[in-house]
Specification:
Blueprint: H1 8-12, H2 14-24, E1 30-31, H3 34-37, E2 54-56, H4 61-74, E3 77-81, E4 97-101, E5 108-112, E6 117-120, H5 126-133, E7 138-139, H6 152-158, H7 165-168, E8 175-181, E9 187-191, H8 202-206, E10 215-222, E11 224-225, E12 229-237, H9 240-252, E13 259-264, H10 265-275, E14 285-293, H11 295-311, E15 316-319, H12 323-334, H13 336-340, E16 346-349, E17 352-353, H14 359-373, E18 377-382, E19 387-394, H15 401-418, H16 443-456, E20 482-483, E21 486-487
Parallel strand pairs: 2-4, 3-4
Antiparallel strand pairs: 1-2, 5-6, 6-10, 7-11, 8-9, 8-10, 12-14, 12-15, 13-14, 13-18, 16-19, 17-19, 18-19, 20-21
Helix pairs in contact: 9-11, 9-14, 10-12, 14-15
């Protein structure tokens, strides 16, 4: 995994740049010593690490704008960072870049009950939004497993989902507006509390843009009334294929659960050992199916889901009898990633999405790849929408294992595209999937996406080295020829 070679003219001005940043963000807002910078050397994709040139932690929008203006004038790169929970390396620092941390932007600014929305700063945690409105019976629907730590600014950058995205949508379906700072320091607003904005759907471009277009400084989100009834079903199956068939039949019947998650045997055992949620240990696959709505509707849906599960060969079936039990069912799933960390020194968490009907085929092929590479894999994923999260287990202390894990993961993502899916469902491209983009997009596709980047950041200073596999600048767009998917002289660096 190559990153752009550090620009020496930027590194040469480091001390002068630090002094200029301290004039904008006084006190402890600029971090320059090596020991303190270690806290920012990676995000959730810990296999890749790099100290930033300097880190700056502004506390208001004007400071962000001034930092952006300064860096734009000097040609200095900027890497925006939220809580650092990204699993694709989206917040990986650059040796010649300023890391711009938004951790101090952590206030809920306004709750508009009549319009069912809240205005929050980007450093507010995902769960923090729900905590701010739950006393009135409301909540924020997207709920990534890292919701206790991940921030709404990062959720917008990656278009995060969660276990309830099947019915209630991803981040893009639950935000109404953003305030953002462009690379030249301009502060702009897109959307707002109204339902639909006029003109181009710029919100659709910003959500999921991975920090390549601007720095988010405020977000307006939808809040929803909590369902009157929520019940969860634990259904165990003798094979992953039979569980996948159950998923397909539930959706085909017209039932859209609030959430529908699947775990295989390694993930089940790891989660149960960690959380003691009451998961069955004698099954190969486990579905967690949540149904919500009015009590009569939920009762009817429970009967239908139980019938489908039994006809698909379920060998165990358990329905939550109270709220504590429902939350316990979900606790194991929410803790699956740290639970797997207890059974392996290291793991790579992949993120691809496939058509639901191909789930049995993909799981079979992943088993074959596991044997090929000699590495275990634990599967945890959003079964309802086909968003897979295979966890490839490896030990970085063993020479060559990280490289094997990376190639294993790349083959899984290529498989997702091969069966009609996509490279990412919610974690983003970052550096992890950057060089796989040609497996999904043509040269023309990538050039068109680059044109959007150039409209916002013509000098390519915002989060460079991420998302685009051919890392050239906007001025060179269209001048680099790719023939049959191959660059001329592929051994030469393209940065």
């Amino acid at each position: 995994m190559l990153m752009p070679a550090p620009e020496q003219d930027i590194i040469a001005q480091r001390l002068d740049l630090i002094a200029a940043l301290r004039r904008i963000v006084p006190g402890e807002g600029v971090i320059a010593d090596e020991t303190s910078l270690r806290a920012f050397e990676c995000d959730g994709l810990t296999a890749y690490r790099q100290l930033p040139l300097v880190a700056v932690l502004p506390s208001n929008v004007q400071q962000v704008a001034e930092v952006m203006k300064l860096c734009n004038a000097r040609g200095v790169k900027i890497v925006p960072r939220g809580a650092g929970t990204s699993l694709s390396g989206g917040a990986l620092p650059l040796a010649d870049g300023v890391l711009l941390g938004l951790g101090k932007f952590n206030k809920v600014l306004d709750i508009d009950w009549d319009n069912r929305c809240a205005v929050v700063q980007p450093g507010v945690t995902n769960l923090g939004i729900t905590r701010a409105v739950e006393h009135r019976g409301f909540y924020y629907a997207p709920d990534p497993s890292s919701q206790i730590a991940c921030t709404i600014g990062g959720n917008v950058a990656e278009n995060s989902g969660g276990v309830h995205c099947l019915k209630y949508g991803l981040t893009t379906n639950n935000i109404l507006g953003v305030e953002m700072v462009l690379m030249n320091g301009d502060i702009v607003r897109l959307g707002g509390k109204h339902l639909d904005a006029e003109g181009y759907d710029l919100m659709g471009i910003i959500c999921g843009s991975e920090g390549l277009l601007g720095v988010i400084t405020e977000v307006t989100v939808r809040i929803l009334p909590k369902p009157t009834t929520q019940r969860a079903v634990l259904a165990g199956f003798p094979t992953s294929e039979s569980a996948g068939n159950c998923v397909a039949r539930i959706i085909a019947s017209g039932i859209i659960p609030g959430g529908m998650e699947m775990m295989d045997r390694p993930a089940i055992h790891a989660a149960e050992d960690f959380v003691h949620a009451g998961y069955p240990r004698d099954v190969e696959a486990l579905l967690i199916i949540e149904l919500d709505g009015p009590p009569a509707e939920v009762d009817d849906l429970l009967l239908r889901v139980k019938d489908i599960a039994e006809r698909c060969g379920s060998v165990s079936l358990r329905v939550s009898q109270n709220e504590d039990e429902r939350l316990a069912f979900w606790a194991g799933r929410k803790a699956a990633f740290p639970a797997v960390g207890r059974i392996s020194p290291d793991y790579l968490c992949m993120d691809g999405t496939i058509p639901r009907k191909t789930l049995p085929l993909v799981l079979t092929r992943m088993g074959q790849l596991s044997e090929k590479y000699g590495l275990r894999v634990a599967n945890v994923f959003h079964a309802g929408d086909g968003n897979l999260h295979p966890l490839i287990l490896y030990d970085a202390n063993n020479p060559g294992e990280l490289a094997r894990a990376e190639e294993f993961g790349a083959d899984i993502l290529r498989l997702c595209v091969e069966v009609g899916g996509v490279l990412t469902g919610e974690h983003g491209v970052g550096v992890e999937k950057r060089d796989l983009m040609p497996a999904m997009f043509s040269e023309a596709d990538l050039a068109q996406q680059m044109r959007v980047k150039c409209a916002f950041d013509p000098n390519h200073r915002l989060n460079p080295g991420k998302v685009f596999p051919v890392l050239h600048r906007c001025a060179e767009l269209g001048r680099m020829h790719v023939h049959k998917g191959q660059l001329a002289f592929p051994d030469l660096p393209r940065f």
